[in-house]
Amino acid sequence: MSKKIMVSFKLNGTQTDVVVEPRELLIHTLREKCLHTGPHIGCETSHCGACTVDVNGMSVKSCTLLTVQADEAELLTVEGLAKGGELHALQEGFMQEHGLQCGFCTPGMLIRAYRLLQENPNPSEEEIRYWMAGNLCRCTGYQNIVKAVQYAAAKLRGEAVQTSHPLMAEILAH
Amino acid sequence: MGNIDANLDRLAALEGMGCSRKRREDPRFIQGKGTYVDDVKMPGMLFGAMVRSPYAHARILKIDKSRALAHPGVHAVLTADDLKPLKLHWMPTLAGDVQAVLADEKVVFQNQEVAFVVADDRYIAADAAELVEVEYEELPVVVDPLKALEPDAPVIREDIRDKLTGAHGARTHPNHIFTWNVGDKDKTARVFDNADVTVRQEMLYPRVHPCPLETCGCVASFDKVRGDLTVYITSQAPHVVRTVVGMLSSIPESKIRIISPDIGGGFGNKVGVYPGYVVAIVASIVLGRPVKWIESRAENLSSTAFARDYHMTGELAADSSGRIKALRVHVTADHGAFDACADPTKWPAGMFHVCTGSYDIPNAFVSVDGVYTNKFPGGVAYRCSFRVTEAVYLIERMVDVLAQKLGIDKAEIRLRNFIRKDQFPFSTPLGLDYDSGDYEPALKKVLAAVDYPALRAEQAARRADASAEWLMGIGIVTFTEIVGAGPSKMCDILGVGMFDSCEIRVHPDGSAIARMGTITQGQGHQTTYAQIIASEAGIPASLITVEEGDTSTAPYGLGTYGSRSTPVAGAAVARASHKIREKARQIAAHLLEASPEDVEFDLDRFVLKGSPEQFKTLKQVAWAAYNNVPEGMEMGLEAVDYYDPPNFTFPFGAYLCVLDVNRYTGETRVRRFYALDDCGTRINPMIIEGQIHGGLTEGFAVAMGQELPYDEAGNLLGGTLMDYFVPTSVETPHWETDFTVTPSPHHPIGAKGVAESPHVGSIPCFTSAMVDAFAHLGVTHMNMPHNAYRVWQQSRSLGLARQ
């Protein structure tokens, strides 16, 4: 064990100070010291993306970043997506398009999709699939995740949105 | 017309069965507010790390824990010697065997649990695990189950070396677990002897892993003052865990509370009781503090429950027109070093005997040999009912092989052999009674949707073009699944019948809480069960809270796996709803001053027959249930139902896949995958489609890339996500889905279960398409996984790739 170090960062807009060992990983700091348990640990080897957070405008797998590397950074986690009690368009999209099942990959997916839409407000399906390839999902088969991102992109562009799973369609068809 | 609109409004307000209701689970998950096991934090909680064996087979000469114990922040290091006085160094498995909790004198697979270190946090625990010194003496290793039964093979299980009878009958070799025979051996042999044509094919279903995104783990907390044990655990069957923990610990079940909180996917991986859970509980009892154990991904892929590993030989006998007369199967089943297979007690190969499939095959005989090897234990149902994926793979491959031998089209041979609609209920020669099915329209719908003749014409042109770089393969599968275990006369786990349960309490304001013995892991139970209650009892789904997973509040049930939630617990939900409805009708009659026979249920209310304007809503009745009930009736409005199904349910489907395969590189592109599923009554179409997308993707993963290979020394080659194939959004194909509806006649709402069918059905469909790409050159079978390297090898062996 080596001497602990104080690290300061902005977490979802709030100034945060933590004291950590130099070897501590950001995902553990976020989950256990900052009590932000949205980001999850699925592999600890940077493959699954469940721990994805936004660090200074870049998607980062927080299981592979030392907390000390996040000193003075701006961090965004899933907990920071909704603003003023309003869900982010991506959160709404994932719900409307059934883009999640067990929910374990979802916080990482949302944060990665957030970065995608910051960089490219009108991505094609191919671009979405390429951008999301660092985030594994075992439940959905990705098809509805793609639709969820498209839904959010359209909404953020100010276009009218419609879910592909209308609530009443099948009842009325009877 | 006004009435119709009003009825539609009332129907819409209920959000009952058949509507794509948005999920009640989603708001917490999209805001990062789920509570998974690793999110649970308790005051004074310690963290445990496992010390594991680097060898697949070795004697433990010495364990020195002194350096680990001296490390600051370490509270305990447990080994088998510490568990022996408590008689907890071995535990019973679900399959009637025993498994070492911590290795006792020797290790029998790589990464076996040897010692458990408990420390202040996960970093200290990991450091100290490195300081535990274990001296081993290596022993000869067997990884191939076919070699494990050779006379001079090393004995893996010395603890039962001389035990001549196992849980499933006689043992013929120290590494032999059981032989399970089903069907008429002699009659089947006679049919084979006199058949026009016979085919035989060996195939390997490789060892794979369900690999949910969340690994296994628990937080165990023993309260020394109260004598209560609480365990948060990643379990698909929390009530079964409570019973097992009670058996192991002698703590009465009334003092054990097992909580499955949000579960990050299960797919069969979270059915078993693993050593990590047991030692975390022991550590908490010994130390009097909560102890958390969370396995790493590498531990998950190498120690907690593989699936499959079936070495199968199939044979079909048929007449010259392709009508199948008999099926004969032999399986060598690799169960690893302990028989911890998750199957109903009486059936050591699960429901493998559904292997006659969707076909009217009059004679069949199946024999399965279970074998020990120096590999980790398991044999769980990876997104399928017990051993059904293996069974469906076998029969679908064999039907293709027969079609190829006779020169009959794969679709045509299926149409010639289907069980006809008028033959249901249908008794198979292996003793199962199919409830309902209508196979021919399903296949024909798929063939029409993809324009099958045009695809075959395109393929013929491609085959005729010697310069074509891309080969084309068309796969067809028409599967029948068996789910909803199950009737307690046939199915039990550790002696507990495989019923399931539901309890509904309607509150005075007309809202309700419902609890079940199952546990959702992404299937959306909190959404869909409420839809059943809405339709069957008239309470709006939005007013129903569904709770599962806490054994102190939910009624006892056997959990969620084998697509049993809808067929079993869903039936309990419907029947409990009917009990609510019946009591409510009597209260309504009392309020309407009518006799109960004159009052009938209508969507959300109880109406006086012939006077639709005279009614009481469910909401009004709920209030009355707490202050104004008929004389002699108990107050309150609640119901409990324990449902023991009379039979399994048999969902089915027809799948078609088109692959383009590069002859020079082995690269494969899924051009089209069309999946038609029939799961009987459909509760939530949005969720059904999502489950099918997921099942198809997991099937794609298994067929095209997943495998847990071992070297001769018993080292697992590829136990991380670097090597173990989990498809990303880039390689996952686009799925096309379709459906027919053939309700189950014995289920209260006709529902059959759906989430596993796409996994079961898609895997042989990919193999069917892959083989089809090379079939014109005489290839009849290719073992999975169909990754580019292996496909390239096939192409090269046929002279299709550049040499």
Structure write-up:
The complex is a heterodimer of chains A (174) and B (803). Chain A is an alpha+beta fold and 174 residues long. Chain A is built from six helices and five strands, in the order ββαβββααααα. Chain A has two domains: 7-80, Ubiquitin-like (UB roll) (Roll), CATH 3.10.20.30; 89-156, [2Fe-2S]-binding domain (DNA polymerase, domain 1). Chain A has helices spanning 26-33, 89-96, 106-119, 125-131, 143-156, 169-173, and strands at 5-11, 14-20, 52-55, 58-61, 74-76. Chain A has a five-stranded mixed beta sheet, with helices on both faces. Chain B has a seven-stranded mixed beta sheet, with helices on both faces. In chain B, strands 11, 12, 17, 18, 19 and 20 form a six-stranded mixed beta sheet that branches. In chain B, a hairpin with a 4-residue loop joins strand 13 (217-223) and strand 14. The model of chain B has no long low-confidence stretch (mean pLDDT 97). The interface between A and B is large, with 67 and 68 residues.
The CATH architecture of the largest domain in chain B comes to: 2-Layer Sandwich
Task: Provide the number of structural domains of chain B.
Answer: 3
How many separate domains make up the residues of chain A? 2
- How many strand elements of chain A? 5
Characterize the overall form of chain B: globular
Biggest beta sheet attributes of chain A: 5 strands, mixed
Helix content of chain A: 25-40%
Low-confidence stretches of chain B: none
Compute the number of helices of chain B. Answer: 20
Mean pLDDT of chain B: 97
Summarize the helix and strand pattern of chain A as letters: EEHEEEHHHHH
Assign the CATH topology of the largest domain in chain B: Aldehyde Oxidoreductase, domain 4
Shape of chain A: elongated
CATH superfamily of the largest domain in chain A: Beta-grasp domain
